[in-house]
Amino acid sequence: MVVWAVTHHDTLQELLADPRVGKNPQLWTTFREGRLPEGWPLTTFVTVPGMITADGEDHRRLRGLVTQAFTPRRTAALQPAIEARATALLDRMAGLQGPFDLREHYAYPLPMQVIGELLGLPPKQQDELHELSDTLVSSSATPEAAVAAQRALFALLASVVAAKRAEPGDDLTTDLIAAREDDDRLSESELVGTLLLMLVAGHETTLNLITNAVRALLAHPDQLRLVLDGAVPWSAAVEETLRYDSPVGQFPLRYAVEDIPVGGAVIRRGEALLASYAAAGRDGAHVPDADRFDVTRQPNRHLSFGHGPHFCLGSGLARLEAETALRLLFERHPALALADGPAPEPIGSFVSNSVRTLRVT
Ligand code: HEM
User: Fold this and answer.
1) Hey, which residues does 256 pair with through a beta bridge?
2) What is the structure's pLDDT at 142?
3) CB 306 near ligand 1, within 6 Å
4) What is the mean pLDDT of the chain?
5) Lowest mean pLDDT among 24-33, 71-80, 289-298, 352-361
6) Domain spanning 3-360: which superfamily?
7) What is the pLDDT of residue 74?
8) 115 touches ligand 1 (CB under 6 Å)
């Protein structure tokens, strides 16, 4: 199997918007010929029925069903709820003794609660959903674990759909059920697939963004000072984190619809491409001094929310959550510091890019 990692900013930007590149797995020779091994860890990514595996008209239909949930107005209206949730988490953290894991106690629950409310997920099942979703994005799970997580996640989300059918709510799941039942715009598997996508995309990434931003700011006190003194806004720290330490390391997969010459090479029809967002953010040919964390960069153009027809639907929400989380955290704890000890371990995924824990004092 040949997979091309597209790591240069300009090449990636071009290919993400190139009609000769598609996302339907039927375009992939390895998949079409049934050569994908059973339990391959990224199977869900490439087969989940929904907008990330669709092209053209199909993609527009599936994406259109959820775009209304993320208009700038609907997103901005979530600000008070995000602030209230972040404040409640900070209150709870105040009771913790000694160094603690900021990822577990703050960066994870905030986006999970927000997407949970948007989708109408039962709060009691959110931790379980998160664990299953972690296995899905881990890219190093055993075949058995990957298959089991995929099945359990589909089953759990199908039960959420059944519950919402019985008792509709004011949430995206109820809206999607209406689109399925009233005018048949969505199949049952697309309905569950879309929920799965929204759940994973809506929290794993923002969790990484908040973790990576706090880590970078604490490791670069001069940059944190610039924000705390009001010389640059929190939004600039968020954009620089997106570029410097992209929450999505690499996104699988895209496929060449025809032979595509790139630089000196040719991506052959039917071969797969990996969008290497983290590498593109550090491309020295696009950003001067790319390995330096610098919150004053202007302009700060990165591809970390994607580009072209699959550009992230939740970028406004992610930015709002991250800015709010950072502002409230550092207002409450201006002397926050990284705890002593060995450097944190990466999470062991080439899709999801962050550290397993972020111990702070
Ligand atoms: C797509 C990044 C947060 C929903 C994408 C893509 C990237 C991305 C890189 C393009 C994937 C590709 O095709 O190559 C991020 C980052 C986030 C974030 C870095 C947070 C820091 C969110 C949130 C939501 C969301 C909060 C929803 C609540 C989606 C959806 C797509 C997507 C639905 C698929 C769009 C399509 O295929 O048309 N995101 N995302 N994302 N994102 Fe996000």
Assistant:
1) 21
2) 86
3) yes
4) 94
5) 71-80
6) Cytochrome P450 (1.10.630.10)
7) 85
8) yes
